[in-house]
Amino acid sequence: MTAPWAAGEDPKVYPIARSGDLVHIRQAIRALAQQSRLSLVDQTKMITAASELARNTLIYGGGGKVTAGLVSANGRRGVAAVFEDSGPGIPDVDQAMTDGWTSGGGLGLGLSGARRLVDDFRLDTAPGEGTTVSITKWAR
Amino acid sequence: MSERIPILRIGETLLVSVQFDLEDQMVLNLQEDLAEQIVSKAARGVIIDITALEIVDSFVGRMLATVAAISRVLDARTVVVGMRPAVAITLVELGLSLGGVDTALDLEKGLAKLRQPTSSVLR
Amino acid sequence: MAKRDNAADLVGLLSVEGQDLAAAWVREVSASLGSRVGTAELDRELRELYDALVDALQQGATDVHAEQMSEVRALLTELSRNRARQGFSPTETAISVFALKRVLEPVLQEGSGDETRAYLELGRVLDGLGLFTIESYSQTRDEIITAQAEQLLELSTPVVRLWDGVIAVPLVGTLDSARTQVVMEKLLQALVDTGSEQAIIDITGVPAVDTQVAQHLLKTIVAARLMGAECTVSGISPQIAQTIVALGIEFDDIITKASLADALKLALRRSGVDLVAHEGVQR
Questions:
Q1: pLDDT of C25
Q2: Is there a contact between A48 and B96 if contact means CB atoms under 8 Å apart?
């Protein structure tokens, strides 16, 4: 796990099984973003990134889960979310990170767009072994 | 199966006000309903008010662009009104500039925009 | 058990001569600070500290971060904060603590072995407190610097209303990424607050832009468009124009005007206002 979860506040796990779950995840991320005092714009960016990634997990990964919570490092606070699925994985990561490239009829902005919206972005994937995407947004 | 967002009609204009975070299916339903009603109600303009929306991700963004394109094909204009600054910044960062979608600051300015002849931008 | 005795010794060291020691401490510190802190204020500060310290030692605390030292720490934090705000140096701040050692020195000359041991022990405690003082001093300094940087950001990015429905941001000085972002957010919020459909970004006072800043400006303009407002950029200097072209930044979609006046004229025309010059009117 890349995220240094803040002491005393355990991250929560949310399932991503149907499209209705995305609404709950957005709400959960919003609550966390407010708690860690992200600016309004940063809150919006983090929730939007989470929404994109959760939808990826659902559509391309065949569902999975997200672990979200507060993080702290070097005196800064932030929000982190780790999206995991056990789907087919991504064969060509460079291609998947390119703006406008899509395998599923979307706009192809999910991964590359989400990366631009957050401070830390990490993608772990291999064909046949699922995909894990970790994102973090730090308060300024 | 899931709820649908009401579409109001004022004269030749259809008005939709999105008041809460939408499930994907509701977004798709809205797109469908709008296309249908532009034809059945012979509408010339569509206003989508997103003042209350705190988040617009690429899915909703795509719906807005699609509705705008569909309405153009059906000889109507779509104006998206009330996008919040934080939402606009996020959409730009996401890489979604919604080209082809008319926008206005609020409902009143959106209605005014529909009354204007098709935009001839001054430079 | 040994620790308890130890603490008792330390207390003994501090309270043998009672009030006199505190007074001597105040004199010592007052001499090193000159007249920049009022004697009455210093007297109050140090006596409070002195009492808190004796209290803490009585409870057996010998470590700065001990639970019993919390009162001492709070007082020291306040003292360091005040000193930092008043512009004292770290040395001048820490001397307030270390001066107590010097005050106790006479004990060493005539004291027994036990008293010397107690003095050294107390010296260690005071060293810890001194370091703590410097730490909170620099922390306060950092806070002041951060606050000033933020104030500067706020000050340097005014959004002004030029006309009903027309706002402008006159940018002056070097633009960095952080500042441009603040401008971006302020401008967009001002569009909503004033209901303006026209915005002018005037960069006459900006000597240079880099790729990142130009990108931020572009994004602002696209974001404004998403909200239903139009932006015009005015006052682009020849150098900046060259930079933009050299960097290959797409400025095609952006409306630019040479001067703020031209930009205002355009903004007015777009909001349906005509300016008419009356011939023969003298003013």
A1: 85
A2: no
B85 contacts C192? CB cut-off 8 A: yes
> How many structural domains does chain A have?
1
Residue from B50, B64, B92 whose CB has the most chain C CBs within 10 Å, to mutate: B92
CA B71 – CA B116 distance, rounded (Å): 17
Cβ partners under 8 Å of residue C215, min gap 6: C249
pLDDT of residue A2: 52
Q: What is the pLDDT of residues C181-224, one digit of tens each?
A: 888 899 999 999 999 999 999 999 888 888 888 888 889 999 99
**Cβ atoms of B93 and B58 closer than 8 Å:** no
Strand order in the sheet with A76-85: A12-16, A64-73, A76-85, A131-138, A120-125
Residues of B in contact with A109 (CB under 8 A): 58, 94-96
Looking at beta carbons, which residues of chain B come within 8 Å of A107? 58, 61-62, 96
Spatial separation of the C-alpha atoms in residues B62 and A104, rounded to whole Å: 14
Q: Enumerate neighbours of A (3 or more CB pairs within 8 A).
A: B
User: Taking a C-beta distance cutoff of 8 angstroms, is the pair C95, C37 a contact?
Assistant: no
C181's tokens: 């972002």
Give the helix ranges, DSSP H, for chain B. 24-40, 58-73, 85-94, 107-115
- The CATH architecture one would assign to domain C2-153 is Orthogonal Bundle (1.10)
- At residue B98, the 3 state secondary structure works out as coil
Question: Which residues in chain B touch residue C192, judged by CB atoms under 8 angstroms apart?
Answer: 84-85, 105
- In this structure, are residues C250 and C244 in contact, taking their beta carbons and an 8 Å threshold? no
Helical residues (DSSP H) of C205-259, grouped into ranges: 211-227, 238-247
The confidence score (pLDDT) of residue A101 equals: 62
The domain ranges of chain B are 8-115
Domain region containing A71: 12-138
CB atoms within 10 A of CB C94: 20
Q: Has residue A23 been placed in a domain?
A: yes
Q: Determine the residue type at A62.
A: G
User: Within chain C, which residue ranges are assigned CATH 1.10.490?
Assistant: 2-153
Min Cα separation B1/chain C (Å):
32
Q: What is the CATH number of domain C160-270?
A: 3.30.750.24
Angle subtended at Cα B113 by Cα B30 and Cα A44, rounded to the nearest 5 degrees: 55
Q: Do C222 and B93 touch (CB under 8 A)?
A: no
Segment C239-272, tens digit of pLDDT: 888 888 888 887 777 899 999 999 999 999 998 8
C-alpha span between C180 and C157 (Å, rounded):
9
Task: Compute how many other C-beta atoms are within 10 angstroms of the C-beta atom of residue A90.
Answer: 23
- Residue A68 and residue A25 in contact, taking contact as beta carbons nearer than 8 Å: yes
- The CATH T-level fold of domain B8-115 is Transcription Regulator spoIIAA (3.30.750)
Question: Going by DSSP bridges, is the β-strand pair B77-81/B102-104 parallel, antiparallel, or unpaired?
Answer: parallel
Q: Give the per-residue pLDDT at C221.
A: 93
pTM above 0.95, yes or no: no
